[in-house]
Design a protein that fits this description.
The radius of gyration is 20 Å and the shape is elongated. It starts with a helix and ends with a helix. Helix content is about 70%, strand content about 0%. By secondary structure, the protein is an all-alpha fold. The chain contains four helices and no strands. Helix 1 packs antiparallel against helix 2, helix 2 packs parallel to helix 4 and helix 3 packs antiparallel against helix 4. The longest helix has about 35 residues. The protein has one domain.
Length: about 140
């Protein structure tokens, strides 16, 4: 909501010669943080898109195996991306990398997005193993 208000205000003020300085940077940082931190929550609430045209035609054992494998691979992938982003954030902090217009440090934003990816990876891994153990007990 804040990004939308800033964008509209910037569009209104720009023709009068008074644009909001750094609005593009602030909207970019805000969007990255909101998206990054929302990933784990949206997965947990099943607010994501799943395309299963081919998947639903498989036998139950294949569905279970492919679901577990996909969640495990995705969880490990996002954990590794999160780890690399932490390394990137430390590099940004060490080098003193700043945004061009407002001179805002990049590393806090990078750390927050990394945290969101880590939470997503934990949700995926927990979901994979929870589903696997429930199936073993015959609950699913």
């Amino acid at each position: 909501m804040a990004s939308m208000i800033m964008a509209v205000t910037n569009m209104i003020l720009r023709p009068f010669g008074h644009p909001i300085t750094g609005s593009f940077e602030l909207m970019g940082f805000g969007s990255a943080i909101v998206t990054g931190l929302g990933l784990g929550y949206s997965y947990e609430k099943k607010a994501h898109i799943a395309v299963d045209i081919l998947f639903r035609r498989f036998p139950r054992t294949w569905k279970n195996f492919l679901s577990f494998t996909g969640k495990l691979a995705s969880g490990l992938f996002f954990a590794s991306v999160s780890w690399k982003m932490v390394a990137m954030a430390l590099n940004f902090r060490e080098s003193g990398e700043l945004s061009e217009t407002l001179c805002i440090p990049f590393y806090p934003v990078t750390v927050l997005v990394s945290m969101g990816l880590f939470i997503l990876s934990l949700n995926l891994l927990i979901s994979a193993f929870r589903d696997s153990f429930q199936r073993d007990k015959g609950e699913a």
